[in-house]
Amino acid sequence: MKLLVIGNCQARPLSRIMCNGGNFEPLEPIILHLAKSEQKAEHEAAMDQADLILTQLTSDHFQAPHLVASRVRDRHPGRVLIWPNLFYAGQQPFLRYLTHPEYGRVLGPLDSYHDLRMIADWRAERGLGGAPVSDPAVLAASVHANSLASLREREAGCDVVASDLIEAHHAERLLFYTFNHPVRWLLDQLAARLAGLLGDRLGIPVALHPLPATFEPLNQFTPPVTGLPDPPQPPYHGIEVELGPNGAIRPGPRTTYTPEELRSRFFECYDHLGQVMTARVAALRTTPPAPFDTDWLAN
Questions:
Q1: What is the pTM of this model?
Q2: Tell me, which fold does domain 2-83+184-202 have in CATH?
Q3: Which of 117, 118, 131 is nearest to 263 (CA)?
Q4: In the chain, count of helices (H) and strands (E)?
Q5: Which tens digit of pLDDT belongs to each residue from 138-169?
Q6: Nearest alpha carbon to residue 163 among 62, 67, 57
Q7: Which segments within 138-213 are labelled E, that is strand?
């Protein structure tokens, strides 16, 4: 049986996990954030070829309408299961994407990821503001609660859930490298739940053979983690960056950083960005947003 997985960066590893037991022949996954409306014929041909489709939940206003999860299920009745985007900010509660309306996405030594605490330290060291007075532990708890509630809300439109696993294990084990990059263990649990549903539908057991322990597909970037008794230790995985003209920051090859090196390189990037991080910092949009972000960006 041919299996098609549709989703974000989690789609390829999920497809590999699902197909490793030999029950399914994998079709090339469709990657949602790379998909375009003009690929409709190509994508629908792949869906027509598939015996089973595992599609990630999308908004009804997704950029490629033919890949809206509810529409995929309506077009292929009995062949589709919808799974959630594994997105949870509670283990990196201060990690954000930064996007400026004129400059664009801000890069640094962790690619598009930035730690608000690092920015606050940089601002304080440059005399741009004092340290925020809020208790970081209280803020982290609020991010955990809000992120988990948001995931539960999205899961209402899915055939499987993962929020219960996150709630049960978030304080004891690493679940996410970044808010949108889950660890292999969590992908394995999601795959097991999907396999159980498919087994019920097919009337046969769906085997999932373990992949090598070294298979960790989404650990390209490893910022500091909050709230674990035994958190992952440095070095941190990131990228080299090149500082170009007019505040440009260009991504380079992968590398690792000690805590001191990471801090130093972030500070160099923020110095290089100039007004984007000073006079125009109020225009920065954070993802995922939290009510306290402005206090840390422009305190």
A1: 0.95
A2: Rossmann fold (3.40.50)
A3: 118
A4: 9, 13
A5: 999 999 999 999 999 999 999 999 999 999 99
A6: 57
A7: 176-178, 181-182
